[in-house]
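Support case: user asked for a sample of complex input and structure output to validate their parser. Sending the pair below.
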Amino acid sequence: MIELAGDTLVFSFPEVFPGARLSISFQRTLRIPDDGKAHPLPAGLGDLPLRHVDDFGSSVPAGWKQRGGVMMPMYQSEATWISFRSYGVPHRESPYPFAVKIGTGRIDAITGKRWRDGLLKTRQDYLIVPEQPWLDGYVVDKGLIRQFVAMPLGAGYTAEEQITGKAGYGGLQICVIPMKPDLFEKLFPLRSEEYLRTMMPARYTDDEGNVVWSVGFVSMGLAPGGLMEQEIYLDEFGRDAWETSVSSRCFVHIANSLVWRAVTGEAPPQPPLTSKEYRQAGVPWFKYYHEGLEAVEGSKELAELKSVIRMGREKGDVPVPENETSDPVRVIELGPKGRSRVSEW
Amino acid sequence: MRNEFGEYVRQARERLRKRDAGFSVRKLAERVGLEPSYLSKIERGLQAPPSAEKIALLAEKLGDDPDVLLALAGKVSDDLLEVIRKRPALFGRIIRELRDLPDHAVLRVVREVRDGEW
């Protein structure tokens, strides 16, 4: 079951395990310079708004209605990262674990393969929560990603268009699969409050009238931007750990700011910061380490994608305003215990 | 007519007054912009409840739920009325269906994000 709580998607599986809940939100963030250097992770600057597609009846494109789900606004060349949070289960040492698949335009962001529901048998095409708190982009190499950057669908930049040659879907796709309940029981048996207090809580965290649009590009998709250091952790539980019979999935449409305003009547958030503003405001950068966990290999398909800047140069386009190269000044290192990368910077 | 509203307000106010002298009839009436004698009559059931706006203000000062006070006064808040007015048949049916459900079951009635074809 998926609910929208404010600007957060909440996936819950009460039929699998009481308290098995995962929330996913999309953070506004700095588009990092695409200068060939691998950057640390930029901060979260607040949630991108999410709305039910069904709330806007015939003013959304027919394709969006057909796919259901939610929609969010992004400016062209705006970047986002995805935040995952699994809720604590009372008297257990770990929040409930989930396998999460992320696609953009139905291209898997970890493997670069076309989307299919369920988990691949041959390689890991999902990330695991709570181990993985964030995903910032396409996994191009072990420990290296290319940032998610919004581009108009149809202009040729998105990962989907580069891989399939078609501008069919755009947006973001999510599939959430909970751990099998008997395995969770076995791995994280009931503990007394006392035990949990005294144990070092390494894994514990608290709690038909279709409209034709006059604007050129209605839907947006995600395209590869600058490089960042981020590891996608190998699944230490194994593929059979996940209760694949009960997956829950959601399509997140991306509207540019004009379309968002026209459809919802709401003002989209302020345009994102430039790297100069980011530096001037003293907003920090982040590195995340989870000791003892291995990272998945990168995807050959994704590594071969052209970044937005490179493709723009080849097309003779200026698809995004240049973001000057800058060396991150303040880098904060975070581990599993201190996870907040979001604040009122 | 039974004086449910006035009696409820009086009891809530008296409870708070034990700890805070700001909850005398006079002081509370001043804070919500009513004549003290008018509030006193409301409490004793000699006057009908005030406007929805004043009721909401009273609820705020008493730390109570405005919907509860409005219901006791035989009123429904404007935003709820608007919701019902937009789809009267649907919401009439929903409310009647939910009438006898226990609270915990009602709390489970939530809106799901719809998945479509893709």
